Fold this sequence. Notes:
Blueprint: H1 5-29, E1 35-38, E2 42-45, H2 46-62, E3 67-70, E4 79-81, E5 89-97, H3 99-103, E6 110-117, E7 120-128, E8 133-138, E9 144-145, E10 148-149, E11 162-164, H4 174-183, E12 185-187, H5 192-200, E13 206-212, H6 214-226, E14 230-233, E15 252-257, H7 262-269
Parallel strand pairs: 3-5, 11-12, 11-13
Antiparallel strand pairs: 1-2, 3-4, 5-6, 6-7, 7-8, 8-9, 9-10, 13-15, 14-15
Helix pairs in contact: 1-2, 5-6
Amino acid sequence: xxxxxxxxxxxxxxxxxxxxxxxxxxxxxxxxxxxxxxxxxxxxxxxxxxxxxxxxxxxxxxxxxxxxxxxxxxxxxxxxxxxxxxxxxxxxxxxxxxxxxxxxxxxxxxxxxxxxxxxxxxxxxxxxxxxxxxxxxxxxxxxxxxxxxxxxxxxxxxxxxxxxxxxxxxxxxxxxxxxxxxxxxxxxxxxxxxxxxxxxxxxxxxxxxxxxxxxxxxxxxxxxxxxxxxxxxxxxxxxxxxxxxxxxxxxxxxxxxxxxxxxxxxxxxxx
Length: 271
């Protein structure tokens, strides 16, 4: 299928509307949060399910034949609905990235919506409803925050730059994490999507995330790379393309950086 600029623009607009609807609903529901443990290892709220349904319903109004891959399926499984046509479009959705924050009333969470075509991100949207910040990126378009262009920073590693880290990290990465804590301003916002959005707009020089799922990183990867940055695994290899049809929730360890710091962080975190 040949995609015109107008096609991609329409898809991006659909994602923006869906993400905003979900984010606004999440802000309403945070007053009445009901949470539980999913698979005994991560929190899920009633709002995750509500917001995911809102997003998928809105997208299906315009793209009923596209595929969907999202975090909240039945009985703790992921949600997967293959495309109904031969075109390999998959919407990859995290209705609330930062659910643990959300369940505890911390206003650091985001809605993440990406569209993958033939395994590669075509566009991505991250919406921070608490600050009304809408991050967008699409093929052959600028990365933007609230309709203003953004780009990754040109800073090198210094004691004055910020770097995003996960709440939990493998024991073998303790030395690398300690190094970040001693040499930079480390930040942990509790949401991979917002860490990546902040790398894209130059607020952080980089971020590392362990054991993330595809819906945590798909939109963020599009944002960072469109803004001039780099997203890779800890050995420096690209994450995409991915086979959405066969994806079953495999975990990724990723690094997102600006151009100046990639090699420094690969040496620090690399496998």
